[in-house]
């Protein structure tokens, strides 16, 4: 149960004064639905009002706050909407005209009564020989300067949400923030001069100068560290809970793996052997394995997994491999089945679409232990699938699953080892936040003889040429992908929708084009992809659903429309869809040129990285550097934790400290029962790590 002291923070933001459903919806877009979301939405800028010149001294175009006397109103003639309302003001050094277009006269008169003194804040400009200020953004009576803050925070905004409203909301949220028992170690706080949680929040929401916006300011560091610690502590608790439970020793005699090695048309690369060795060592150890094998697309992870699975079979047990989609499960099955046949090992495909007697028969085979190697989708973990003796679970493309699903998976084979495979090369820092509970093996080398994919950036204006190129590839018997970023046309963003593109291409290549997008139903989508996979369709128009890869060896061209809108790592993944056969392959990055037909510098730098290297790790690091962690790897849909305050690029050092801190906590106070432990529970709840708290015995 969440500590009651946190209740005000988890209340809906409509609980705050003057925030109704309409405003809440707008604030929801930039922050979130709860008070705590507002608290963790930090200012992104500030308005500095400390510049207080006289009228004569005011520099042009600089935000100035000036004390003036209101001399006279000069309203526009009746009906003349394009003439502004002027208010003539002065101080002892000169004259300043305040200018209001289309403003209500009553309001202006009320704000600026003739003969009175006012503070006005805005940008001063020269208009002929006059000095003027258009639409001051602050008008305040002069009764002690204390009323005017030297700086005002600027929050992320959205259409319809003003800075003023957002500031008021954030400030109301801050008023509700309770003082919480300290969960950080006193020596750490002292050494880094970090304020308390409450004090840190107060400071970040009341920045006084640019330095307070710096991610390395003590207040921001403190809050970032809180978040990183909650993340690392949750992972450490999961890991601890797992190691507490007994595992099993699984070793093989090589009689099956040797058969498969003999049946393979290639030898494993050094990198594959190395990863396999690490996996087998973990399996042979008495504790439960939780290991991530990461390797770029095409690095050959499947074979490594198969060898590990067959080792489990050699030990007399079963092994299962789970893929995130039906199509991928089928493809794994088609790869693995013949190799299992070569070793005389029974292998079955289990998915949610199995029906009737076949379904029953497959499941019985698995339950009785006749079937040794099982390939499947999530269906593997549904209640009607039971294993006789499951020793190894392999999960492909893990980054589609979250930490919590990982917990659930392990329930299926109570002592089973877990091997996770991901094709997304993950920068080290991100790996720590996501897989901090796992050991990591890396296949850093690709099988020999791979040809680089010819990667080109082409402006959208040359669309016709690109289409003709695809026509030639189709004539050669090859296939192509066409990737579009969105499903529905969005005029505002000028984004080409997959549907429109599909129609144009289908008209050009009748009967040879298929369309898949995220809003289609599973079976419908699979049917199209499989038709492509079988070669019945030559050109597959898709949104990024193909990212998690189908394997079509005849695909030699991939066109990525609006390439400038994708993350580098994502583009790299997409590119990995071609060049899987022996024919030379091309990746065309279609971009929308800006003014003068040119691509922006950052966009150009990004596309160049991609053209210059095919090393997914280099690309992932660059992506992180160029875009920041929030966007790298398309985190939003990928299961990487979304930090609100911390930034793994800015706070990489803190992440390491948090990791060590979390490990120490779990070693010394695994049930979080000490005084600090109690406070740490609150921290976990504060950052929504409720599942991790559930692991604790006395919860
Ligand atoms: P991924 O790591 O992307 O899952 P796969 O396991 O699908 O890669 O392997 C990609 C392709 O490389 C497959 O066609 C596979 O048969 C082949 N392959 C795997 N290992 C080797 C190797 N050592 N030498 C040559 N080809 C290999
Ligand atoms: Mg794979």
Q: How would you summarize the topology of this molecule?
A:
Layout: H1 7-10, H2 21-30, H3 35-39, E1 45-48, E2 63-74, E3 85-91, E4 94-100, H4 105-111, E5 117-127, E6 130-134, E7 138-141, E8 151-154, H5 163-176, H6 186-192, H7 197-205, H8 218-244, H9 255-263, H10 270-284, E9 290-295, H11 301-314, E10 318-322, H12 326-342, E11 347-350, H13 356-368, E12 373-376, E13 390-396, H14 403-409, E14 417-422, H15 428-435, E15 439-443, E16 454-459, H16 463-475, E17 479-483, H17 498-508, E18 513-516, H18 522-533, E19 539-542, E20 555-561, H19 568-575, E21 586-591, H20 601-612, H21 616-627, H22 652-668, H23 675-686, H24 690-694
Parallel strand pairs: 4-6, 9-14, 9-15, 10-12, 10-13, 11-12, 13-14, 16-21, 17-19, 17-20, 18-19, 20-21
Antiparallel strand pairs: 1-8, 2-3, 2-5, 3-4, 5-6, 5-7
Helix pairs in contact: 7-8, 8-15, 8-22, 9-11, 10-11, 19-21, 20-21
Bound molecules: adenosine-5'-diphosphate and magnesium ion.
Domain Helicase ATP-binding: 282-443
GO molecular function: ATP binding; DNA binding; DNA helicase activity; hydrolase activity
Keywords: ATP-binding, DNA damage, DNA repair, DNA-binding, Helicase, Hydrolase, Nucleotide-binding
Characterization of the model:
The protein contains 24 helices and 21 strands. The chain has a 7-stranded parallel beta sheet with strand order 11-12-10-13-14-9-15, with helices on both faces. Strands 16-21-20-17-19-18 form a 6-stranded parallel beta sheet, sandwiched between helices. It has 699 residues and is α/β, with parallel strands linked by helices. The longest helix is centred in the first third of the chain and has 27 residues, at 218-244. Bound molecules: adenosine-5'-diphosphate (ADP) and magnesium ion. Magnesium ion is lined by residues 301-302, 423.
């Amino acid at each position: 149960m969440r500590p009651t002291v946190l209740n005000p923070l988890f209340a809906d933001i409509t609980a705050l004064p003057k925030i109704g459903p309409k405003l809440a919806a707008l604030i929801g877009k930039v922050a979130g639905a709860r008070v705590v979301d507002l608290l963790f939405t930090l200012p992104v800028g500030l308005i500095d009002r400390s510049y207080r010149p006289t009228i004569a001294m005011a520099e042009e175009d600089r935000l100035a706050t000036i004390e003036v006397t209101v001399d006279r109103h000069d309203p526009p003639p009746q009906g003349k909407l394009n003439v502004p309302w002027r208010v003539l003001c002065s101080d002892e050094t000169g004259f300043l005209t305040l200018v209001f277009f289309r403003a209500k006269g009553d309001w202006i008169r009320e704000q600026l009564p003739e003969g009175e003194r006012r503070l006005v804040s805005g940008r001063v400009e020269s208009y002929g020989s006059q000095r003027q200020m258009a639409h001051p953004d602050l008008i305040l009576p002069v009764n002690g300067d204390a009323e005017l803050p030297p700086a005002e925070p600027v929050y992320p905004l959205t259409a319809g949400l003003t800075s003023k409203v957002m500031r008021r909301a954030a400030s109301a949220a801050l008023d509700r923030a309770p003082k919480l028992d300290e969960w950080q170690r006193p020596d750490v706080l002292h050494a880094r001069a970090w304020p308390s949680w409450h004090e840190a929040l107060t400071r970040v929401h009341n920045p006084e100068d640019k330095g307070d916006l710096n991610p390395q300011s003590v207040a921001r560091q403190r809050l970032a560290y809180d978040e990183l610690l909650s993340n690392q502590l949750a992972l450490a608790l999961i890991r601890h809970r797992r190691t507490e439970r007994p595992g099993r020793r699984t070793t093989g005699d090589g009689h099956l793996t040797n058969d498969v090695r003999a049946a393979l048309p290639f030898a494993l690369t050094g990198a594959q052997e190395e990863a396999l060795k690490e996996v087998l060592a973990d399996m042979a150890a008495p504790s439960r394995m939780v290991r991530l094998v990461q390797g770029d697309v095409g690095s050959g992870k499947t074979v490594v997994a198969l060898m590990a699975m067959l080792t489990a079979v050699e030990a007399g047990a079963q092994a299962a491999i789970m893929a995130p989609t039906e199509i991928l499960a089928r493809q794994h099955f088609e790869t693995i089945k013949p190799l299992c046949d070569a070793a005389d090992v029974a292998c079955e495909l289990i998915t949610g679409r199995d029906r009737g007697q076949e379904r029953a028969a497959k499941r019985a085979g698995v339950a009785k232990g006749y079937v040794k190697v099982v390939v499947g989708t999530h269906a593997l973990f549904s209640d009607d699938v039971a294993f006789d003796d499951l020793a190894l679970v392999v999960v492909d493309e893990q980054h589609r699953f979250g930490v919590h699903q990982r917990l659930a998976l392990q329930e299926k084979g109570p002592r089973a080892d877990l091997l996770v495979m991901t094709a997304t090369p993950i920068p080290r820092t991100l790996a720590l936040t996501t897989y901090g509970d796992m050991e990591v093996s890396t296949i850093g080398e690709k099988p020999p003889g791979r040809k680089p994919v010819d990667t080109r950036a082409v402006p959208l204006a040359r669309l016709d040429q690109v289409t003709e190129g695809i026509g030639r590839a189709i004539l050669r018997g090859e296939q192509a992908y066409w990737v579009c970023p969105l499903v529905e046309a969005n005029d505002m963003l000028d984004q080409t929708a997959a549907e429109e593109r599909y129609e144009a291409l289908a008209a050009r290549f009748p009967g040879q084009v298929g369309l898949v997008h995220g809003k289609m139903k599973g079976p419908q989508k699979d049917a199209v992809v499989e038709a492509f996979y079988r070669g019945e369709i030559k050109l597959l128009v898709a949104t990024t659903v193909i990212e998690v890869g189908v394997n079509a060896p005849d695909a030699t061209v991939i066109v990525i429309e609006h390439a400038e809108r994708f993350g580098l790592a994502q583009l790299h993944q997409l590119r990995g869809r071609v060049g899987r056969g022996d024919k030379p392959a091309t990746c065309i990055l279609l971009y929308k040129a800006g003014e003068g037909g040119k691509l922006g510098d950052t966009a150009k730098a990004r596309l160049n990285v991609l053209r210059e290297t095919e090393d997914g790790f280099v690309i992932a690091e660059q992506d992180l550097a160029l875009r920041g962690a929030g966007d790298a790897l398309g985190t939003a849909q990928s299961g990487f934790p979304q930090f609100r305050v911390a930034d793994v690029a800015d706070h990489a050092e803190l992440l390491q400290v948090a990791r060590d801190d979390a490990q120490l906590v779990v070693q010394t106070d695994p049930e979080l029962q000490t005084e600090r432990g109690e406070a740490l529970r609150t921290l976990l709840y504060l950052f929504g790590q409720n599942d991790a708290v559930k692991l604790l015995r006395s919860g």
